[in-house]
Amino acid sequence: METKDPPIRVLLVDDDEGMFVLISHMLHHSSKTFEVRAVPSAAGRVALGESNHDVCLVGDTSTSTSDHIGFELLTYADTIGFAAPIIILSETADEELDLQAMSLGASDCIAKGQLNARLLERSIRYGIERNRIHAALRSSEERARRVLNAAPVLLFELDRDGIVTFAEGSALRVLRIRTEDLIGRSAFEIYPEMEAETRRALSGRAVTRTVELNGVVLQTHVSPTRDAAGRITGATGVATDITRRARFERDLRANKRELQAERDFITAILDTMSSLAVVVDREGRFVRFNRACEKLTRYRVQEVQGRHYWDFVVPPEEVEEVKAQFVLRREGPFPNVRENHWITRSGERRYISWANSAIYDASGSVAYIVAAGIDITERKEVEDALRYSQHLFQTFMDLSSSVTFIKDRNLRYVFVNKMFTELVGRPASEIIGLRDRDLFPEPLADLWEEADRMVMTSSGTITRVDKVSGDRHFLTTKFTVPDVSGQVLIGGQSIEITERVQAELSLRRSEERFQLAARATNDAIWDWDIASNTLSWHANVHHLFKYDPELVTVTMDWWKERLHPDDHDGVTQSLRAAVENNVQFWTAEYRFQCSDGSYAFVRDSAYLMRDVSGKPVHMIGAMTDLTERKKVEDALRESEERYRRIVETAQEGIIMIDGEGRIRFANARMSEMLGYSLEEMRNRHFTVFAESGHGLPMEILRGHAAGLPQRHDMKLIRTDGTVMWAVISANPLVERDGSPGGTLAMVSDITDRKEAERALQEINDRLEVRVAERTAEIVDMMARLEQAHQIQQRFVADASHDLRTPLTVVRAELDLLLQREVHDLSTRQSLLRIANESRRLENMASDLLLLATIDSQRTLTATELIQLDDLLFDCVAQLQTLAADKGISWNIDVQEPVSVRCNGMMLHRAVTNVLENAIKYSGRSSIVEVRLTYQDCTATVEVSDNGVGISQSDLPHVFDRFYRGDLSRQTTGSGLGLSIVKAVIDGHGGAIGIESESGKGTTISMEIPMASLAAPAPVSVE
Description:
Layout (H helix, E strand, L loop, with lengths): L7 E6 L3 H12 L5 E6 L4 H6 L5 E6 L8 H12 L5 E5 L4 H9 L4 E4 L5 H34 L2 E7 L4 E5 L2 H5 L11 H4 L4 H8 L4 E7 L2 E11 L5 E10 L1 H4 L5 H20 L4 E6 L4 E4 L1 H7 L3 H4 L14 H13 L4 E8 L5 E12 L5 E10 L1 H23 L3 E5 L5 E4 L1 H7 L3 H4 L10 H17 L2 E7 L5 E10 L5 E9 L1 H5 L5 H11 L5 E6 L4 E4 L2 H6 L10 H6 L3 H16 L4 E9 L5 E12 L5 E10 L1 H23 L3 E5 L5 E4 L1 H7 L3 H4 L14 H10 L4 E8 L5 E12 L5 E10 L1 H69 L5 H33 L6 E4 H11 L1 H6 L3 E6 L3 E5 L1 H17 L6 E9 L2 E8 L31 H11 L3 E7 L3 E9 L2 E2 L9
Parallel strand pairs: 1-2, 1-3, 3-4, 4-5, 32-34
Antiparallel strand pairs: 6-7, 6-10, 8-9, 9-10, 11-12, 11-15, 13-14, 14-15, 16-17, 16-20, 18-19, 19-20, 21-22, 21-25, 23-24, 24-25, 26-27, 26-30, 28-29, 29-30, 31-33, 33-38, 34-35, 35-37, 36-37
């Protein structure tokens, strides 16, 4: 069945609903299938963030780059890494907007009036294809960079003046030079030995020379770099480290250490790729940070490189300890192991176990520390819980008034409480591991050990009264206790009953009840009066199971109703059998319902008391809550099952090889990859499955015999004879005594990747040709744009110049006419209006000529050193008459005399324009404030007025040429004044800012780089 290509998903960001209908109609008749989704401009950011579109179309009615929604989305798309092409649909065809959009990353720009189905489809397909080409190109560049960093070479570029503009390559490490120490410096200054050769290369001749720099021998080839027109723009050089070849005998030992350091570095990185892997320098700054670390911490490698690891991944309370430990471990023996917390970006704490090794430099000092880490947070939590549980158990047993002990199957003590140590008179550390015959008289020890064997054989419970020493009697209960591994241990509790044995028979029942209650002080104790069938409870039943004391009844039915339905019949039958069969002790484990409806796992142990005739009259018991222990046991079983499923369902093949190279274990994925059954693979030699004559399998085995991890790409042969490329990561297994225990290998099928790499190389070759062709087109287009810009500048300058001459003549003639007596008032007013308009046109022509001059120069030549405060006072004096006509006064605040190097005429013009605007738009009898300050080698001139101000809609455009806001249209002007001010300030390398509000005035600040602080001019006494 023929499969159709998936539809191309198109996102349209436009407030015009008709555009969605138009574009959908155009794409409906295309040869491809398209899915169009439209959102308004307000939802554009959210839609881009979904990242599920193949192309984005952005339409906008604005023709200004400052508020164009397409430009705003292009900038946002770059910050979030939006990979799909973005096509701008502009309202009109504007080449300047198109260039601005392309510089911000737009795939294409199409005027809505020129839009058609063929053009739209071609633009979309071209944008998608170009993104694919760029992705492949970036991959090719990254591969080239890896090759460059791996090879012992230094690649550098110089401009025409010999300034280093680029330096990259692993040879920098050999030279002990950082890239940032070279960029921006003169090659003649860095290496004067190469000055003659460098100058020859910059003059157009390729030069090759072997030179020794900083003790390193380099073979250097420098050739000139030319632009498309053939002009020399600089030079490109390649320096290859040939020190080992040139100085092999003298530097043999140093080279071996360097080579070993590189091998250790590479081996450490490869060995830890499947776990957390970091490399830090001697100061604790990150050098490497693998993907496992990124996934755990949510930090990208670019965010952590060069930063101390304790600054953001170590909890604040552990920072000082980690710093101190780092210094000790850096100077201490390697490898070493440590554990500490890491904090993720979201604030989650993870507990990491680290294994550290070192990379040494040529002098034998530690250069880098390589750490492999395993996240043991869950295991740590379980261990802490177990330790806490053990601590509680030990504390409870030590506080118990009974003598408590546990023995293993060999009848040796593995646990004793405080009462036991006091009875024997020896500390617990001396008792653990001993038998009864090592602590007590032989006849008594033999009797007790015989009872222990009976308990193990019957898995039941034995209670007996023993006379230990003198007249001291103990009631001892022995029972079996399973440990976590399933082995059976012997537990026992002994209660001293010396006084009870000597007491009267009438007190026997109350004394026994007291002793049993004492040995179960932390359990829920109950007392069943069999004759009346009433059941009384100790207060712990309320604590353990959260029951309100008033709701607990005294009948056996209350207890039976709370047994789990699956346990009810078995428990009640067991209890009935104990009473009927004259059993002294009864024990059962079952689930008991708590007040909230949940069930707790409990162990119920009871003692049956009879009267003198042997009739059962009372049963006293204790319920122990086993819920937490059950949870731990279930968690351990679940962990084992999870790891077993991981091995069986892993996407990688897993094999275990013994010391002789034979396969002892293989998972299902390994069997599936090779086509052999697990039985066929087991006990066969590893080399059987490798390509004939391939030496890598034996190399892996030899490396693991020496305890060295291995990682190789190699070919394996499937059962049908086909070849499978695989990457094998093998790690040695070590027995407890430190001897080699075989090899554990992870096998990944990379056959498709090998084929893809070959195909990608072919694509890259084709892409290089296409990129070269596209680059030539762009260069040609930029040349034509530059030519158009120059023609525009010449036109403005020529037009301004040609306008000034006739306007000057017109104004002169008008002045002559006005000097004559004109009796017609209407005629005289017309002449005055013509004179004012001609003067405005002449000023506009002067402004245009000035702007054309600034545009042609790009930057203003600062040749004069002037006092900026003197310039301010000159400008104020020049405008004093204009200010006086409106009753405006000045408030001038000069912090200190300031010198600036500038174009004095241009700067004077800019300041005058700002002051003239302040006068023009201020009310009568108001104040204009002028302030001169300086800070950090920058002088700032601020001019403030309390005039009409500027509306918020006009404020972004006040520096645009010929732009006049609503309020400014009420006064005369050309709309070029502030444009000239901005051009002059920008030409001096400064900055201009404006703050304004309608009806509250305006403040304009001009920042100008200072030349120096000028001392006050001396005052003449004459």
